[in-house]
Amino acid sequence: MMEPPRTADVAALETTAREIRRDIIRMTYLAGSGHPGGSLSVTDLLTALLFREMRIDPERPTWPDRDRLVLSKGHAAPALYAALAHRGFLPRAELATLRRLGSRLQGHADRGKLPAIEASTGCLGQGIGMAVGMALDARLAGRSHMVYAVLGDGECQAGPTWEALMAGGHYRLDRLVVLLDRNGLETDGPTEAIMGIEPIADKFRAFRYRTVEIDGHDFPQILDALAEARSRTDGPTAIVARTVKGKGVSFMEGKSAWHGKPPSKSEAERALADLGSPEEVPAR
Amino acid sequence: MTALGPAASLRDAYGAALVELGERDPGLVVLDADLSGSTRTQLFGQRFPDRFFNVGVMEPTMMSIAAGLSLGGRTVFASTFAVFAAGQAYNFVRQSVCYNRANVKIVATHGGLLVGGDGGTHQMVEDIGLMRGLPGMTVVVPSDAATTRAATFALAERNGPAYVRLTRESLPTVTDGSFRIGRAAELRSGNDLTVVAVGALVARGLELADDLARLGISVRVLDAASVKPFDEAAILKAARETGAILVLEEHSVLTGVGALVAAVTAEGHPVPVRRIGVPDLFGESGDPWALLDRFGMSMQRIRDEAWDLLRLRGRVE
Ligand SMILES: Cc1ncc(C[n+]2csc(CCOP(=O)(O)OP(=O)(O)O)c2C)c(N)n1
Ligand SMILES: [Mg+2]
């Protein structure tokens, strides 16, 4: 049977995403700290962005017309580092240095240390504001590149998130796309038990975002939503991506305990087995 | 010389003290901003779910809510990491809490470089300066679990705003827990040099004193946990009696306890003062204790500065 070309493409993306997830496990294991849960939930969104939708070039990382990505939920830095490495922006071997003294791979991404990072983040609620500033800068400069901001759902409890969103809507920033990693969990448990953010899509709409809700682990849905966002000319887009925290690792899925805890040696090995094939990891 | 006591978690001591306070005072309320496992307010939340508000990721508004809860007469504790309590929420602490003279005790964990892996965004090295600059604020930087426990109780009894800075890492026990607001604790007596230290570096001050004692040099060690009100009398007495002061803090030297000691002595009894702490830099990811060395707080550096001061004073060749 003939496969539609799309399916082969999706399979390639899934393979890439699995490799990134394997790196997230290895990195947080080796570092002995970090945030695997929210890194695994955002992996497919980052893969779709960096490997398909975004106009970027590892040969010219500072090309002025490149699309910009700001990881507002900065604690998912391991996912971003791994995706950037697979995309050719840094050597994959460097991933093993995450969080070590002197490493370019800080616990939360540092633009001053790693030029592929568009904006330093870590304290929640600030990435989206910087993305708004970048979109305004592009408009002033007459450039038409896209600016993507990736938010966490716990981050949507923070006031500055809404201040920045309000500004993006007010200025009708049609190059701005907000992707919400709606994994349902924050550090201490479910967002809706701690401080409910629903109805979140309606909130984005009320702030003047054209808003779509998708499955954040379904590449065709992610790519469609991103393509549509690029075609807009009248204002910003919000993509509410329903995801699973810890996605791909059976014992991490849906568990807030894995928000900020690295796997042990045996847990890392079980996780890697879940993610395609068993592998022994070195002692830490 | 007494060896240091076993390491204990300051955060655990805080969580346990909160539960005891909750038993004693049925009106006491605790707030957190989605870090209750890390700050240990969870212990209070499990015991008194009706009096615990985990408001999510909204540190500035947590301070306003805390102030509002307190204005009718309650004692309120609010916790998150230092970078969010003193940094993110600064102007809310300033107006909602301090300007209102609200009875809110902000207990911030994860102060300083010892946060480790999370890196410079999360390593708050400016909080002591920010908080001690606020009119009416009491500021305490415990050096161990015993002082953390004592300070939590002492602050609950005192009406008004307070900021407590705790460390993520467990620290050796260096005090007998007899903390008093406004008083520096003299952990070693001595007349050749004074070390004024806070937090995690008190233990390094004691190590220095013990090393030098073997050479017949006596070092006074003051634990300045009560940063505000500050025990100016103890500092001036030390300046008069020992003639030189070495300050150790895991905080920016620009605005921390070293700057405070320099100001107090300059006005009251000028003597040579050396500040050891974080230079004018953001922190970075790394092993927590290795970071102290990397940023200029190694035992070697502490010894070198101490010798310099002793030479200046003519105490050694
Ligand atoms: C302003 C601020 N407050 C608190 C934190 C500590 N923190 C890091 S991640 C996190 C929870 C975030 O939840 P969410 O946005 O849902 O992230 P995800 O589930 O995608 O990992 C918290 C409270 C922070 N980084 N910034
Ligand atoms: Mg979440």
Brief digest:
Chain A has 284 residues and is of the alpha/beta class. Chain A is built from 9 helices and 5 strands, in the order H-H-E-H-H-E-H-E-H-H-E-H-E-H. Chain A has one domain: Thiamin diphosphate (ThDP)-binding fold, Pyr/PP domains (Rossmann fold, 3-Layer(aba) Sandwich), CATH 3.40.50.
Structure, described:
The complex is a heterodimer of chains A (284) and B (317). Chain A is α/β, with parallel strands linked by helices. Chain A has nine helices and five strands. Chain A has one domain: Rossmann fold, CATH 3.40.50.970. Chain A has a five-stranded parallel β-sheet with strand order 1-2-3-5-4, with helices on both faces. In chain A, strand 2 (147-152), helix 5 and strand 3 (176-182) form a beta-alpha-beta unit. In chain B, helix 1 (10-24) runs parallel beside helix 8, helix 4 (59-70) runs parallel beside helix 6 and helix 9 (201-213) packs across helix 13. The chains are: A alpha/beta (284), B alpha/beta (317). At the A-B interface, loops of A face helix 2, helix 5 and helix 12 of B. The structure holds thiamine diphosphate and magnesium ion.
How does the SSE layout of this entry go?
The complex is a heterodimer of chains A (284) and B (317).
Chain A: H1 5-31, H2 36-53, E1 68-71, H3 77-86, H4 127-141, E2 147-152, H5 159-170, E3 176-182, H6 191-194, H7 200-206, E4 210-215, H8 219-230, E5 237-242, H9 265-274
Parallel strand pairs in A: 1-2, 2-3, 3-5, 4-5
Chain B: E1 7-8, H1 10-24, E2 29-32, H2 36-39, H3 41-47, E3 52-54, H4 59-70, E4 76-81, H5 82-88, H6 90-99, E5 104-109, H7 127-132, E6 138-140, H8 145-157, E7 162-165, E8 171-172, E9 185-188, E10 193-197, H9 201-213, E11 219-223, E12 226-228, H10 232-242, E13 245-252, H11 257-268, E14 273-278, H12 288-297, H13 299-312
Parallel strand pairs in B: 2-3, 2-4, 4-5, 5-7, 6-7, 10-11, 10-13, 13-14
Antiparallel strand pairs in B: 1-8, 6-12, 9-11
The structure holds thiamine diphosphate and magnesium ion.
